[in-house]
Amino acid sequence: MASERMLKALNEQIQEEMFSAYLYLSMSADFEAKNLKGFAHWMKLQAQEELIHALKFFDFIPEVNGEVILLPIAQPQKTWETPLKAFEDAYEHEKHISGKINDLVTIALEDKDYATKTTLLDWFVSEQVEEEATASEIVQLLKMAGDSFQGIFMMDQKLAGRVIEAANEE
Ligand code: FEO
Fold first, then answer.
1. Which are the contacts of 16, defined by CB distance < 8 A and separation ≥ 6?
2. How many angstroms does the Cα of residue 98 sit away from the middle of ligand 1?
3. Which residues lie below 8 Å from residue 87, measured CB to CB, with a gap of 6+?
């Protein structure tokens, strides 16, 4: 059985992951409206990954006899000036999420809740390394592309090729 504070933090993490999905869907809609279909596709898949992350917490809480409490999801920003600005925000957001996962690990260690740490949180620690690296790499590429139409077009083509990762398909 997880502690009360762990259960509270796990429920809050569902909210964080759902907000992540909302944020990336909002970016996807903004890209779509600007006819940047590859960017829009990439962000929509990212939103799907975030829903899977939320479901991992949603499914885990009852396994430790906890109660799922769904918290409100804030309205995300609607538009971004450039693709670079959107991906810079995505990168900052992923760093924020990594901090939240680290806070959960801290609670698990303080509570000696090794079950939650091993069964659930360790996966997220690794996942966040990947999430940050991916967003950071795209930020770097967009900085190199600059404002040139050709650079943005090439990035749009590249991001159009994203597929859902096998590890997240379950
Ligand atoms: Fe669920 Fe992108 O962190």
1. 97, 100
2. 8
3. 135, 138, 139, 142
Q: Identify the pLDDT of residue 74.
A: 98
CB distance 50 to ligand 1 below 6 Å: yes
Q: State the DSSP code for 111.
A: T
Regarding the beta carbon of 53 and ligand 1, being less than 6 Å apart is answered yes
For ligand 1, is residue 131 a contact (CB within 6 Å)? Answer: yes
Domain ranges, ordered by start, for the chain: 4-162
- Assign domain 4-162 to a CATH class: mainly alpha
Q: What's the gap in Å between 49 CA and the centre of ligand 1?
A: 7
Helix axes 149-160, 37-63, angle to 10 degrees: 40
Answer whether 97 contacts ligand 1 (Cβ < 6 A).
Answer: yes
Q: State the pLDDT at residue 1.
A: 81
Percent of the chain with pLDDT over 90: 93
Per the prediction, the chain carries an average pLDDT of: 95
